């Protein structure tokens, strides 16, 4: 199960610099953490997780296979994108394909780098982007509702549900609120996702700050964090310039550079962690002599659906899962020790997989 994060922003905010630095950093990782460029503006990166290497060392795994996240460097947005200005149509189409959107906001002063709006105001930049997405959603909904009318009159359930959800989104947008502010019932989540509304996607604000403020942010990034908290969105502070420098270094040199800058980890790690939290994701592991592998699932996923991430047959023929918590696997120095300590569990179809679980699935082919 792959997850895709779209990186958006106004021109000259550091969006592409950040994307290029992140993907070069990923490419420079050890062979066990591969990177590939799918298109010039799409990068698939390994999700860093120290637990995976620990499990592999215990089990003597020959190969380590991390889970992945895809980043998409989406064409720079300008005011009027919803009407096709600039690369507006391409911009909006690319966002629809993403699971979440990272808004890169310029939180630094630099007289040598002009700002498209003529001033440094990350809150105004965020509002410009949000406004264009909202206008696009309004146009989309108003175009779709008339086409549903006949099916609604005919009593088609799917059409009735779609009409109801679109009108709920329309009410929010007309009130100046993005579609993600609509409270959607659990039973409606699938239908809601299929509407592909741009403003329904979770948002992560990425504050691009100057090098000296990379560790703790600055006054501008603090304002963004306050805005994000009020919206229930995520925020993270990154210096694209530092990430660019790190991407040119060998891993040991990069670690020393980060330490000198007062940073505990690279921006890629912080960005992915924030993205996972935003999307409500977690990781489970499968471990053996051949490979140690990480798998990404939404929080709350039941064992059969977690098995289905590996292969559909695992979910269809699910019998049970042999389960060991990560901490218990490490404490027991492997499966045998965990069993001796009474930490090996057999779980059925109603088991809710926990972050860090080490699982082995039994199924009927």
What does the model show?
- With 365 residues, the protein is α/β, with parallel strands linked by helices.
- Helix content is 43%, strand content 20%.
- The protein contains 14 helices and 13 strands.
- It has helices at residues 15-27, 50-59, 88-96, 122-153, 157-174, 189-194, 219-231, 240-246, 251-260, 267-279, 303-310, 312-316, 326-331, 335-340; strands at 3-8, 36-39, 42-46, 63-65, 68-73, 100-106, 203-208, 234-238, 281-287, 291-298, 318-324, 345-347, 358-363.
- Strands 2-3-5-1-6-7-8 form a seven-stranded mixed beta sheet, sandwiched between helices.
- The protein starts with a strand and ends with a strand.
Widest sheet: strand ordering: 2-3-5-1-6-7-8
Distance between the termini: 21 Å
Helices and strands, in order, run as EHEEHEEHEHHHEHEHHHEEHHEHHEE
User: Count of helical segments?
Assistant: 14
Mean pLDDT: 86
The low-confidence parts are 27-38, 84-88
Globular, elongated, flat, extended or rod-shaped: what is the shape? flat
Largest sheet: 7 strands, mixed
Short overview:
With 365 residues, the chain is an alpha/beta fold. The chain has 14 helices and 13 strands. It has helices at residues 15-27, 50-59, 88-96, 122-153, 157-174, 189-194, 219-231, 240-246, 251-260, 267-279, 303-310, 312-316, 326-331, 335-340; strands spanning 3-8, 36-39, 42-46, 63-65, 68-73, 100-106, 203-208, 234-238, 281-287, 291-298, 318-324, 345-347, 358-363.
């Amino acid at each position: 199960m792959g997850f895709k994060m779209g990186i958006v922003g106004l021109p000259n905010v550091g969006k592409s610099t950040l994307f290029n630095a992140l993907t070069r950093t990923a490419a420079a990782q050890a062979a066990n953490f591969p990177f590939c460029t799918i298109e010039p503006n799409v990068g698939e990166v390994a999700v860093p997780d120290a637990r995976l290497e620990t499990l592999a060392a215990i089990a003597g795994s020959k190969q380590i296979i991390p889970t992945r996240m895809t980043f998409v460097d989406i064409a720079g947005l300008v005011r009027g994108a919803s009407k096709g200005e600039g690369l507006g149509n391409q911009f909006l189409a690319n966002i629809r394909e993403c699971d979440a959107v990272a808004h890169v906001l310029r939180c630094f002063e630099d007289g040598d780098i002009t700002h498209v709006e003529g001033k440094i105001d990350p809150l105004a930049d965020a509002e410009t982007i949000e406004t264009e997405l909202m206008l696009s959603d309004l146009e989309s909904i108003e175009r779709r509702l008339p086409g549903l009318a006949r099916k609604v009159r005919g009593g088609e359930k799917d059409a009735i549900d779609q009409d109801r959800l679109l009108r709920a989104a329309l009410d929010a947008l007309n009130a100046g609120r993005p579609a993600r502010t609509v409270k959607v019932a659990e039973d409606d989540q699938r239908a809601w996702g299929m509407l592909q509304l741009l403003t329904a996607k979770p948002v992560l604000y990425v504050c691009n700050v100057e090098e000296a403020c990379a560790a703790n942010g600055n006054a501008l990034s603090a304002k963004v964090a306050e805005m994000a908290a009020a919206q229930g969105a995520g925020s993270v502070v990154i210096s694209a310039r530092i990430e660019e420098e790190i991407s040119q270094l060998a891993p040991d040199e990069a670690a020393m550079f980060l330490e000198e800058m007062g940073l505990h980890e690279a921006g890629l790690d912080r960005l992915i962690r924030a993205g996972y939290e935003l999307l409500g994701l977690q990781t489970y592991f499968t471990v053996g002599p051949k490979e140690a592998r990480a798998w990404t699932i939404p929080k709350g996923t039941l064992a059969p659906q977690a098995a289905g991430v590996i292969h559909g047959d695992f979910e269809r023929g699910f019998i049970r899962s042999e389960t060991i918590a990560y901490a218990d696997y490490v404490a027991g120095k492997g499966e045998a020790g965990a069993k001796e300590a009474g930490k090996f569990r057999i779980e059925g179809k109603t088991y809710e997989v926990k972050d860090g679980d080490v699982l082995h699935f039994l199924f009927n082919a």
